[in-house]
Amino acid sequence: MKLITFIGAGTFILLSAFVIKNENNTGAKSLYDKKWMLRKIHTDSGVHELVTKAFIKFNLETKSAGGNGSCNTFGSSFSITNNNISFKNIFSTKMYCEGVQDTEDSFFKQLGKVNRFKLKDKNLVFYHGDDILLEFQSE
Fold it and tell me: Does the domain at residues 2-138 carry the CATH identifier 2.40.128.270?
């Protein structure tokens, strides 16, 4: 009888952990295995629509994100709980690129402020509170 109780309790704990893990990643599932192309940067001076090669990709296994800022490659660790997201330890190569440096600088600055995201179809939007910071579209 004790063995059956022990097995039942163990099964319950494992299933609970699985449910909690899935709840913490709600909406994030379709974030991975896609290349998200940067389309708009929102700053205090307005919305800047872009035609650039800047993108971000997410790796679930390593909890890392990275891509291209328009000129330089970059990387970061990130954490997701429900629709909250934060990027830590953002780093990049340091080449200066005429014509796109302002875009890249704004992209990295806004990325550091992100605390929430929304996914809808092929669109990914990063927010700080209720303010839109960055908009992406998957390929």
Answer: yes
Token pair for 53:
């090669």
CB 75 within 8 A of CB 87: no
Indicate the length of the chain as a whole number. Answer: 139
Beta-sheet strands, E only, within the chain: 36-43, 46-49, 55-59, 64-68, 73-81, 84-92, 116-120, 123-128, 131-138
> What residues of the chain score a pLDDT lower than 70?
1-29
Distances (CA, A) of 103 to 65, 108, 123: 19, 9, 20
**Global confidence as pTM:** 0.78
Question: Which of 82, 66, 84 minimizes the C-alpha distance to 74?
Answer: 66
Question: Which of helix, strand or coil describes residue 9?
Answer: helix
